[in-house]
Fold:
Amino acid sequence: MSNDAIEILENVFWTLVGTVRYYIARKMQRLRITFTKSEEARFIGNLDLHRAWERTMRRVGADMVFSQGFNPSPKLQLASALPLGITSEAEVLDVWLNERVEIDDFGVQITEVLPPGIQIRKIREAKLGEKSLQSRLCAVEYVVEMRDSKLIREIELEVKKLLSRQTVMRKRRGKDYDLRPLIETLEVKRAKPGNADLHMRLSARPGFTGRPEEVISALGMASTWMHRTALIFVDKDY
Amino acid sequence: MNKNNTPESISKILERVLPDVERPGRYVGGELNSVLKEWTPQRIKVALGFPEIYDLGMPNLGLSIFYDILNGREDMLAERVYLPWLDMEKVMRREAIPLYSLESRHPVVAFDGLAISIPYEQLYTNVLHLFKLAGMPLYTSERLYGNYPLVVAGGHSTYNPEPMADFVDVFLIGEGEEAIVEISEVVGKWKQLPIDIEESRQAAYERRLGLLRDLAGVEGVYVPRFYSVSYHDNGTINGVSATEGCVDTPVLKRIVKQLPPPVTNFIVPYVDVVHNRAAIEIMRGCTRGCRFCHAGMVTRPVRERTVEEITDAVRSIIKATGYEEVALLSLSSSDFAEIAPLVEAINTEFGHLNLNISLPSLRIETVSVDLMDRLRAVGRRGGFTLAPEAASERMREIINKPVSTSQLLETAGEIYARGWQTIKLYFMIGHPDETLEDVRAIAELAKDVLSEGKKALGRRARLNVGVSTFVPKPHTPFQWSPCDTLERIREKQMLLRREVRGNGLKLNLNDPLETMMESWLSRGDRRMGKVIYEAYRRGARFDGWREQFNFSAWEAGFEASGLNWEFYTARERGSEEAFPWDHIDAAVKKTFLLEDYQWSKRGETREDCRDACYACGILPKFIPLRKETEAGDWECPEVKPRHLRRSQVMRLSPVASDVLAE
Structure:
């Protein structure tokens, strides 16, 4: 068979698959929730957060889509695991529902039963066929408040030194890795008088993820507060 | 004064240190449905303590009930206290943080009362540990002089309160739903009494004794200080006598005439705890009379909830908590009169929610498989657990759990046939009169069960065999019986290791040394307090954790106290012997228990006492309460006085004569 024929057959096949999927899924709805995780919730790990969201959905009686099989679990996806102890204003969750809901009403209902420390910033509908959030995430931004009362100029110097290095070898959980390519941007900004904040953007691709405390530690400094400000996806419109 | 004793200072330190400890979520509180009330001076403040870490304390249903009841009252507040795990304990010591409550982060000593649940004996050293971390003296006699919270303990192990009598101010024997409020009210009134600012040490002591006297007036409260114990030369109890006029001897356990509405607004932990689920007690008490079973004897009479109350509760629980699992608790689910309608109702209403409804303690019969199958449609699938407790029919008659082996095999076959790949079988070794043949029967039965599985599923069939060691418990027919010696247990376990093996078979045994500890604590007397204290001082704590259990600390504890542990474990008690717990009345008569022990030696069984009353004594003990209940509220059969009865079932007579005597 010629390559053209194969291509045509493939196209026909995928069109068919798409149609079937559309008919199965047309009543489904994929909601994308952007939420904050504040101080009260900063010690909740990713698995625990996943369960907390499942329970939140159950409290409002949301008709979640479940996986098939012996142990059905609801279809919920968190974009990125937030390291323990860090607060965030930019967490993203996708949830699949069997029946369409009125988003504003749904938002009000959910807000009433959220666990302490979680607040919703935005809910919108996402396309059912879109790839998973995790696979489309590419970077994460943090703001870190520095504990040391060093002069801003000193911190700036350290940052400059770090950024000028070709490699920054670190060890985490017994594994050696290079931190330098994971740092996309790193800059010092003046916060309250006399205090400095570090603003950074770290890579967050699968298997290629930077952690803010590693950056602070590589600078030889300590922080009082770490906060996630944004998730960056491959396409702007997440 | 310690500067770290305000909620603010504690919170401030926590903020700094928590990132360095394992699972910091255990130590911060603030979970959904937790209740933080204002600390007004008028409010009676109760710390509800579980002497274990958060992960094990959170699921405790008893404390959830008290939390709900106390916080439901305007004049009271309740907060939770658990032990820190070892890493956090180190941090707390380093930072000089006293044990604090999760809600408001007040130190324990700032509360008016500390109510502790002690469901099992392995927690005894942890109770001392809790006092220590709270900055309280361990002995109640030392706390009488200071302004410490009143320590109240309850829970199943406290039906023999004596081993902990030196450390706990007052015990609540039995059910606490009403008594916890009454106790708190007494404490509240006592708090209102004017205190002389320059009160002498002696006056403070007297004032505190006054509180204990008032508390002794609450039904079900036992104040150990007001009783003195004398011993025979051979170490057995000579007698227990009251030293204060105000106390009852014996102290009758407290019961509620009807189960109060179930808790539905459970706290939802973020951290993954054991039994991460909501629980509804569908029935309290048990009519089966298994002779080894402590709970079955002390929780009589049987009281059930209605199907409607249970389904209403499930609905409210889902709304309030979003839990994906709800456990329907009882000592014997199959005996719940409306079990089939209950399962049907749950299926109908909640079947589409992918909920996991667990129904433990089902009888070994194919009907149970039907029930589980229908519940499985509601949600997820786990293993299927059966507890024959003994492998030979002879043994099962001795322990009064009569199930035929053929019925067991048929049930197991049905379970595998319906698609469960794993069955868990629970046995105990060390029952009275057990021989090595009876132990070997466990291996044979296990293989027979597994071959049922292979018929249905081929090589996918699995069988987990859990074998624990029987420990004779107070207030049961086996309270006279010796516990197996270490050598004997080891011999039996060796046999099991040799015989219970093969493809698809898994064997779980417990540590014989832990069994010994449980054994001497279960039937210990007041002198055991010294042993507990000495063992704790030598590092014993978290005794329920295999890797923390410190047997040599206990041995040293016995040495330091001049006691011999085999006196408590290995000895068969004579029928005339007075027990350390004889002044605690669990409402089942000692004469009934003794008779049942003798029946067991003859291999005679007593079937379900729903059908025929064996006169255990519960009814004559609670005649006034029984009169307040509707017919059928308790599952005891109607017992008529002798002259009103025809000649049927005459062995029921003792109860009738008791009734008439009143």
